[in-house]
Amino acid sequence: MFDSVTFRALNSALDGLAERQRAVANNIANVNTPGYRAQRVQFEDALAASVGRGDGAVEASTALSLEPTRQDGSNVNLDTETLSNIDTVLRYQFATTAMNGQFTSIRTAMRTS
Amino acid sequence: MTFDAIGIAGSALTVNRRWLDAIADNIANVNTVRRTDEAAFQARYLEVQAGEGTSGVYVASDVYGSAEGRLAYDPTNPLADEDGMVRLPDIDLAEQMSALIIAQRAYAANAAVVDRAKTSYEAALQIGR
């Protein structure tokens, strides 16, 4: 079960979402720092491709946003980051629920065998 | 994991609180009178830098405003010189109030990040329960 594509994919999703949460927190922390470029974490496309191949394990990658900067030198868009933060938290909870479902299946299987 | 987010937002809360303190100090001293042979009260600004990778933000140094200030005619003031001039700080109240709003908004945004990171952490604690 710990070898299945589902488990590896959920694991990668949780890692990627945690990475994104860190990046968003860093962006919001630096919303007024001159010269700061917002960080963006990507893993969904790589994960979909990996699951299609039957693997499921991916590493999240971080890129810098190329949006134009404001006068104070930072290019962090507070509204985008706030929505991304809320979105990431909800997806993280969704992924943990799915992960719990995996463990519940194992427990059920252990009980009935 | 997600608890790093709490530390990162925490660093920003510290920076923004220090910024609020500096602004409050500037506004409190906007009318501080000094003698003309002394330096004026200097406004204080914070120079901030992003930490390495994803380690938040920190204050690099304090930067001080003009020490010259502006001269004003106030002969009844006990600190006035023989021409009746005193030295006042060169602080723009409107600029300080704008900075106050920005600092407050940044503080609130980072406090919200801490709250959401806590929600994620609590969800993670439920795995396997």
Description of the structure:
The complex is a heterodimer of chains A (113) and B (129). By secondary structure, chain A is mainly alpha-helical. Chain A has helices at 5-29, 44-53, 78-112; strands spanning 39-42, 61-64. With 129 residues, chain B is α+β, with helices and mostly antiparallel strands. In chain B, the strands form two sheets. In chain B, strands 1-2 form a two-stranded antiparallel ribbon. A two-stranded antiparallel sheet of chain B has the order 3-4. The model of chain B has no long low-confidence stretch (mean pLDDT 92). Chains A and B meet through α1 and α3 of A and α1, β1 and α2 of B.
Which features characterize this protein?
heterodimer; A: 113 residues; mainly alpha; two-stranded antiparallel sheet; 3 helices; 2 strands; B: 129 residues; alpha+beta; 2 helices; 46% helix
In short:
The complex is a heterodimer of chains A (113) and B (129). Chain A is mainly α and 113 residues long.
- Rg of chain A over CA atoms, rounded to whole Å, is 18 Å
Distance between the termini of chain A: 16 Å
According to DSSP, the number of beta strands of chain A is 2
Shape of chain B: elongated
Major β-sheet profile of chain B = 2 strands, antiparallel
Distance from first to last alpha carbon of chain B: 19 Å
Secondary-structure element pattern of chain A, one letter each: HEHEH
